[in-house]
Amino acid sequence: MLEVAIALYCIYFLVNFYTTFMQIDYVKKAKEGDAVILSSDRFKVAGDYSVESNKLSLLATLYDFVLFFMWISFGLVALDELTNGYDGFAKAVLFIDGFIIINWILGLPFELYSTFIIDKKYGFSNMTKQLFLKDTIKSGALFFIFGSLVIVGLSLIIENLPSWWLVGFAFIFSVIILINMLYPVIRDKMFDKFSPLSDSELEEKINNLLNQVGFKSSGVFSVDASKRDNRLNAYFGGLGSTKRVVLFDTLIEKLSHNELLAVLGHELGHFKNGDILKNIGIMGFVMFVFFAIFGNLPDEVFLGLGLSNEPYAIILVFMLFSPILSFFLMPLISAMSRHNEYAADRFGSDMQSKEDLVNALLKLANENKSFPLSHPIYIFFHYSHPPLVERLKALGFNGAGIGSLKDDEALKSEDKYE
After folding, report:
1. The dihedral of CA 146, 147, 148, 152: what is its sign?
2. Is the CB of residue 245 less than 8 Å from the CB of residue 270?
3. pLDDT-based confidence at 417, cuts 50/70/90?
4. What is the C-alpha to C-alpha distance for residues 75 and 233, in angstroms, rounded to an integer?
5. Cβ 340 vs Cβ 270: under 8 Å
6. Cα distance from N-terminal residue to C-terminal residue, the chain
7. What is the pLDDT of residues 163-215, one digit of tens each?
């Protein structure tokens, strides 16, 4: 059984490595050709950024592959011996926390290089060493407190219930729902500064838009995302009474009112079409399958890793091998997601206009340096959103002037629509 899991991990690595390699080669060639969507200069820069980011991802994938075999060869046994004096939930907390911390430390160079070298080079990151350290300390504190409590809860369930995986699934699923509910509140209190919109006209327009579709929120907020990053984004955060509309300050600065409303209309399309509930349902089903599999593993799996069939080892095996199952499920889930994105685009364009949504998508692509072309195999495995070119075609953007868009006025030329 362990041999099968290791073989699947090797397949997972090869597919992940190969698709990223194909993407790098594809973008290298494409960025030297005729520009699409972006101006010639921005097209090449976006291509360069995509290549550099994927090269780092390729190296990280190889690094993770080596780490995986180091863990199963001797690392897990060594960590088991270090925590030998403990049992039950205490053992689980020390072992799992230790595993996560060691992995984080070993992966830290990639995070630092991405944030302080690549993202700085391409004008994204505004992160300072002080802010990075502050964020790390806060994230670490949250992990130690709440992550350890979750480990304690799950280990007690495993220890005391015969069909523990059913209750364990319900427990973890409830924790995930709670995290989604509290996410904007935690971000507000510990990481970001959420402020009511200073533009009262924009706030009134957004509230009117929300009322049209019956979306009730606790408010519309601007967040100071630019202190960390210059990318443009917006999201609906929270669940129930904590739901709120969050706009990055960078988005407010770069998009017109109508374009902002078109972007929010797209997000409201997900709400109106029930995509949020569908995604929760899919996540719940996948997690249920995972718990059914990992909750009924034979002792041979744990013996093969040099561990005992105890709570700490069960949680560890779940963490070690569940990404493999997730990866191979992603093409199906991503295909459904891409279908939902087209529907949300239609809803957003109906709420505002096709022109406003297209202009917003073009600006987002320009500001976020999103390379508009990708290898089909890479799209199949990695894209939860359709390629920008396809989204624009679906909105009736006929491509006139593509490759020479230099300013906002160029984006608004009406002869680009069928």
Report:
1. positive
2. no
3. very low
4. 40
5. yes
6. 57
7. 899 999 999 999 988 888 887 777 777 788 888 888 888 888 888 888 888 88
> Helix (H, G, I), strand (E, B), or coil: what is residue 418?
coil
Beta bridge partners of 397: 417
| Spatial distance between the Cα atoms of 34 and 22, rounded to a whole number of angstroms | 20
- Kindly report, residue by residue over 205-222, the tens digit of the pLDDT: 888 888 888 888 777 888
At residue 416, the pLDDT reads 42
User: In sequence order, which residues have a C-beta less than 8 Å from that of residue 395 and are 6 or more positions away?
Assistant: 345, 349, 354, 357, 358, 361
Which of 101-110, 181-190, 399-408 is predicted least confidently?
A: 399-408
Whose tokens are 């601007």? That residue is 222
Residue with tokens 């999201």: 235
User: Is the distance from CB of 76 to CB of 95 less than 8 angstroms?
Assistant: no
User: Phi/psi of residue 395, each to 5°?
Assistant: -90, 0
Instruction: Report residue 240 as tokens.
Output: 């129930």
Residue at token pair 């991990």: 9
Q: Measure the CA–CA gap between 281 and 284, rounded to whole angstroms.
A: 5
Q: Residue 255 class from Cβ within 10 Å (0-12 exposed, 13-18 middle, 19+ buried)?
A: buried
